[in-house]
């Protein structure tokens, strides 16, 4: 049914965050089994042909995004630029991503620095969230990464985080795929 | 040996330490503690000479290093060995190794394609993309944290008020709605903070805040925040001519 | 030149407002005369074939939108979105979560506005529930949060609800590290 494919395309396009198969299924009142092959068909159409829009799997859902290789042109497009992450922020984010659920004290032990300010910033940016309280004296809060974290880095799920061992090799691949144009002070 | 090192280039003492170990081509598993401690202290001293504030964490690491150094120079008594394990460096090494992993991942993260930096999605809201759709309520995506935070910050900035002084002032939301609209009529677009002058009392802040929420609910005011951390901006969502008609006290239901 | 068409597609997709030929021309450093036929080609591809996305001309520029006839489906997209609340709902939910059991009058006292509508919505969404009647004249209903509330915010139990104090501790340490204004000596 062609109309269903059209609807899927429109929904994924109009949604303001990645749409999961489950949500598509409940929105369009069709079983996942009918929707999945159509999504895959759309992915083939968009991703195979040097188009300006790709249909990617991210954060447990589907979303249209532009291909990485076009980024130099697209950066000029919108006035609002995202803030760059400080090294402290990235380090903290990495620790939280891999060790979640993790307390502030654990993060600070590893980094050797007070990390309250950085963690507050990450909370405000919605990149991390409170998962609960740890069942130890003082009941400290435990933190983990959020859906927005996956969206930011285009990760389909937390399982897709680069494994700690493999990153040195992955590094090289990435360096090839994305020539590290030294951020010419945008 | 001259050090061209600036503390602020390091994200913390672990980072500095790792840098020293690497530039001395040492094995993390077998740190030459005397050498490293000396160099570390030199860096700190230089910073002191330049009269730079050295964060407590850097000093804490210095004392940890000194402690390890002294333990390594002293003959090990059995008691201490039982208490702290064989190699006084062991804990630091473990921390360094783990820290190093995350430091590398952090660098990898920097290289991953980032949304809005390397890849882009359509950045408009659903209401703007769906043809034939009128703009829905200006909804704000937030967690409980964001909301509590907004209010807390506003209240925190006030000087403490005297308690027990119960002022039964009738602060009417409607009156504050009028004030906000007046300001917006002349200025068109104002930052949220512009509405909270120094002189406002706690209850006035709350009522002003409520008046804003009410205006957003009535779709008379747009609230926007162009990016994280930037100011929140308010602007009129309706033509000025329509204002007087819609905000009389009765229509709001506030007596 | 196919790559130019790809770039046009990506730019129009990612822009925060309709893109005019002039803007496209200056962004992509190609004359309008080269860009226009490619835009028209894209329009034919998108608009002729019952797709879920259209390339339309609006206010002097081009923009991707969903076809009008699909809007009844897409409207549900906004409304059903879980975890997206108006400020009023968020505020009410926070009050109920932290002060439960709480009556409607108490919520309204704290918020300073009528909250019947919001509370009805929250009841319909099963995020709050009636806990019983308060033993005071008039026997008002008392409300609290539901199991769905915990699920939505990913909390194991109400005990894990972070206190405001805990959040602000991230702040205080920051203030200590960077004394901004010497408050005591003013």
Brief descriptors of the model:
heterotrimer, A: 186 residues, alpha+beta, Arc Repressor Mutant, subunit A, 3-stranded antiparallel β-sheet, two-stranded antiparallel ribbon, 9 helices, disordered C terminus, B: 255 residues, mainly alpha, 2 domains, 4% strand
Provide an overview of this structure.
The complex is a heterotrimer, with 2 copies of chain A (186 residues) and 1 copy of chain B (255 residues). By secondary structure, chain A is of the alpha+beta class. Chain A has 2 domains: 2-75, Arc Repressor Mutant, subunit A; 87-177, Winged helix-like DNA-binding domain superfamily/Winged helix DNA-binding domain (Arc Repressor Mutant, subunit A). Helices cover 48% and strands 12% of the residues of chain A. Chain A is built from 9 helices and 5 strands. Chain A has helices at 2-14, 21-28, 32-47, 71-74, 87-99, 104-111, 116-124, 147-153, 167-177; strands at 54-58, 61-65, 102-103, 128-133, 141-145. In chain A, a hairpin with a 2-residue loop joins strand 1 (54-58) and strand 2 (61-65). In chain A, helix 5 crosses helix 7 (116-124). The longest helix of chain A has 16 residues, at 32-47. Chain A is globular and about 55 Å long. Residues 166-186 of chain A have low confidence and may be disordered. Chain B is mainly alpha-helical. Chain B folds into 2 domains: 7-93, no CATH class; 113-162 and 169-252, Arc Repressor Mutant, subunit A, CATH 1.10.10.580. In chain B, 51% of the residues lie in helices and 4% in strands. A 3-stranded antiparallel beta sheet of chain B has the order 1-3-2. In chain B, strand 2 (221-224) and strand 3 (233-236) form a beta hairpin. In chain B, helix 2 packs antiparallel against helix 3. Chain B starts with 12 loop residues before the first helix and ends with a helix. Mean pLDDT of chain B is 72; it is low at 133-144, 158-167 and 246-255. Chains in contact: A-B, A-C, B-C. At the A-B interface, strand 2, helix 5, helix 6, helix 7 and helix 8 of A face helix 1, helix 3, helix 5 and helix 7 of B.
């Amino acid at each position: 049914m062609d109309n269903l494919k059209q609807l899927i395309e429109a929904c994924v396009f109009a949604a303001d965050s990645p749409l999961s198969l489950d949500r598509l299924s409940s929105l369009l009142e069709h079983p996942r089994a009918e929707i999945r092959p159509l999504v895959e068909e759309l992915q083939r159409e968009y991703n195979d042909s040097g188009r300006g829009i790709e249909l990617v799997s991210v954060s447990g859902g589907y979303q249209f995004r532009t291909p990485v290789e076009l980024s130099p042109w697209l950066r000029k497009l919108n006035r609002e630029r995202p803030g760059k992450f400080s090294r402290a922020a990235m380090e903290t984010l990495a620790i939280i991503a891999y060790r979640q659920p993790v307390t502030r004290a654990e993060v600070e032990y590893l980094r050797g620095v007070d990390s309250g300010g950085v963690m507050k910033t990450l909370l405000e940016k919605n990149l991390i969230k409170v998962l609960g309280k740890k069942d130890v004296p003082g009941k400290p809060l435990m933190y983990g990464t959020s859906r927005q974290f996956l969206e930011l880095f285009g990760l389909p799920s937390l399982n897709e985080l680069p494994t700690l061992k493999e990153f040195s090799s992955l590094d090289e691949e990435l360096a090839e795929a994305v020539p590290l144009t030294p951020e010419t002070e945008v | 040996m001259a050090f061209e090192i600036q503390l602020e280039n390091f994200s913390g003492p672990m980072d500095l330490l790792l840098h020293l170990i690497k530039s001395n081509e040492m094995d993390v598993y077998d740190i030459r503690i005397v050498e490293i401690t000396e160099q570390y202290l030199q860096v700190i001293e230089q910073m002191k000479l330049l009269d730079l504030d050295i964060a407590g964490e850097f000093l804490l690491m210095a004392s940890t290093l000194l402690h390890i150094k002294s333990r390594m120079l002293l003959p090990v008594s059995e008691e201490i060995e039982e208490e702290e394990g064989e190699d006084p460096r062991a804990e630091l090494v473990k921390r360094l190794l783990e820290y190093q992993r995350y430091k590398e991942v952090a660098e990898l993260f920097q290289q991953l394609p980032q949304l809005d930096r390397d890849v882009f999605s359509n950045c408009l809201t659903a209401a703007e993309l769906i043809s034939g759709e009128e703009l829905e309520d200006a909804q704000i995506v937030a967690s409980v944290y964001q909301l509590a935070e907004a209010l807390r910050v506003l209240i925190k900035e006030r000087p403490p008020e005297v308690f027990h002084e119960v002022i039964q002032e009738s602060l009417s939301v409607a009156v504050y709605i009028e004030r906000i609209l007046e300001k917006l009529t002349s200025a068109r677009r104002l930052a949220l903070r512009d509405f909270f002058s120094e002189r406002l009392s706690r209850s006035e802040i709350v009522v002003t805040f409520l008046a804003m929420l009410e205006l957003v609910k009535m779709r008379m005011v747009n609230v926007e925040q162009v990016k994280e951390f930037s100011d929140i901006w308010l602007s009129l969502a309706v033509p000025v001519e329509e204002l007087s008609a819609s905000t009389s006290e009765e229509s709001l239901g506030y007596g």
